Amino acid sequence: MTAPARHQPSLWIVLTPKWRGALSRVRHEGGGSRAKLLLLSIVAIGFWAAIFGVAYRVLHYFRGVQEIGNLLAGKVLGVTLLAFLSILLLSNVITALSTFFLARDLDLLVAAPIGWVRFYLAKLFETMVHSSWMVALLALPILTAYGVVFSGGPLFPFVAVAAIVPYLILPAVAGTILTVLLVNVFPARRTRELLGLVGLGAVAVVVVLLRVMQPERLARPEGFRSFVDYLAVLKTPTSPWLPSEWSAEMIMNWLTRVSDPWPIARLWGAAAAALVVGALVHRRLFHLGYSKAQEGAERKVRRPLRGPIAHLLNWLPPQKREFLFKDMRLFFRDNTQWSQLILLAVLLLIYIFNIRSLPIHTGERVPFALVTVISFLNLGLAGFVLSAVAARFIFPGISLEGRQMWLLRSSPLDPRTMLWSKYWMGTIPLVVLALAITGLTNSLLQVSAFMMAVSLVTIVLYTVAVSALALAFGVFYPQFGTENAAQIPTSFGGIVYMMASLSLLAVVIMIEAVPVTAQLRAWQRGEHLTATPEILIAGALVVALCAGATLIPLRLSARRLELMEW
Amino acid sequence: MIRLTELTKRYGKFTAVDGIELVVPPGELFGLLGPNGAGKTTTIRMIAGILRPTSGTVLVGGIDMQARPLEAKARLGYIPDRPFVYDKLTGGEFLRFAAALYGLQGPAVERRMDELLELFELTPWKTELTEAYSHGMRQKLIIAGALVHRPEVIVVDEPMIGLDPRSARLLKELLREFVSRGGTVLMSTHTMEIAEVMCDRIAIVYRGRVAAQGTMAELRQQTSSEGMSLEDLFLKLTGGHQRHQLDAVLGA
ipTM value of the model? Predict the structure, then answer.
């Protein structure tokens, strides 16, 4: 007979497969060539430098505004952290479902003699890291800018870490509690609908919060009845019951030399209490939920995807048609995949609301130049959003075939057919999205017909190209055997793809500046815009560039797929 | 027909398959035996067109797998050792997808699917997602998928894993019937009884090479092991564990 385990494995041991796996991935991806590592370093530094630069300029400007400068800086930090908090909460719920109930290592861990506290802490840590690292990286240059502009001193990094760690723990615990409760209260097979509800709730909360705050009002002090009213709004906490406000307060107190222990006490007290509550909820409900989740394999299909869509694609040869059907079915039946649409919807709603709230059509003479410039910038922003969406939905396409590749490779399926299917499956919805975002925001901005046409044509060409880039980088940097589709875009290949697509965007925008400037000049002179050779050349260049960025990656990836082994 | 000529596969400095030569004519069930890591699965995956050989050729139905892969694959049905299927497809959808990969569609495919599901007792599960299937059911589903396009050559990697005795019996009969009608089967297995009873000829693969091949009688003759069972013959060629190893593990 075996003796019962006397010593619990440490948290470090329980997490070993995770950190060792991450290390070997870094070695594998980074160690391949020094050029890769250099490329990644340049991207990271460039990215941080850009965010730092913008934050530094804004904060420097605030610093110069007497009396309200510090208040404005605090307000902006609070709103930024609040926006991050909503993303963190949603991201934690989605990740917790995967790490606590669906991950492949669960059978091993649940069967091993590991105490519930260690198990909970290990899984919570894993959930928190997966959900928060992007936000933490984004917050790093912003907080650095705060530290530099307000002369935070050598201890500021420690204060910032002390303010951010509990801020990350709280949504992670909240996410795990919510997930455990949902899996327990409802049948596990209904998690899809539940996640939909949670997502819709999160969208509603974020939009309502942002609308109630109306952050754009702060940029227009003249909109207030008096300066005192304006000051009162600035001094009132945005969301006094949320950790984003406590973190912002703790950081601003340090930077403005205010000694107030309450934000620190609230933050760390709440984080500690949340951990205790989270652990107790886990102890009581995890095993029941886990057992339910095991029984929860869906059996019946609610949407068999026949009928109108099937008829619509009847003209396609069977290989292509069934491949498209298969991809659509897998996408809409997989919670970890389609639930990312909720995140996308949140971001898009905020984006459109922000455009709508821009104070440019306020009754005075319509500032044509301003509208044109904003519309042009909007094109860049829409391009960025589309690149990110392609990273989320098109880049993982090939990786997700992973374990089933034996079937595709042993059958007479031309790899080009697979690419074709993946490409159009991603590109068509993305083009629709691109036209919707650009068309809608341009209509809200009331841009000229010329700007509308330039924006729509450019965004369609760009979308067609980024889809090809996303798919191609997915072929060159596949992540077979991944547990969570949501993690694929954040791999090395995903980051390199983002860099490539944003470089393409930057070049396209630079070329498009030619016709946009020509339109502005014509407007200044009170003339109509005529098609000059520069405008035509610029147009032809954009078409050629986007066509090249579409065809070359697709050809290279088809060749790569033919040679690839599993 | 399957013909392997000087088939070699290297991963860096490691040679997984080292110049294997084999011919499996139509109407023959050929068994590939060997210890873990001998190179059986790598060989089978090269025949199926999943891995590219470092050197050597694979002919399936007389067609070079590397030169004309799509034509060669159209003649082949591959059954892997691990039944990975798309969890979020139903059994019916999976079979329809498998048939479409071979360019097949329409009422004839639907009838064929129903026949296969019936044969493997999966008809009640046709509209259920495969994530609810047991290991054995998944295995039966991928066997059905390999047969849906009526291949002339079947390559099977460890076919009996996860199958209940009834299904294992069915598969044995199916493969024997397939070769009796002129089909070709190459099968890897660890189970000596299965190899001995089912296979017309056997190759014992060890460290990437064919250590011996032929009918049971020819194998005994080649290895001077008259009267030996296949298991003893296999252990003679590939080596077995030592008593002290068992003692060490069990703490005796």
Answer: 0.87
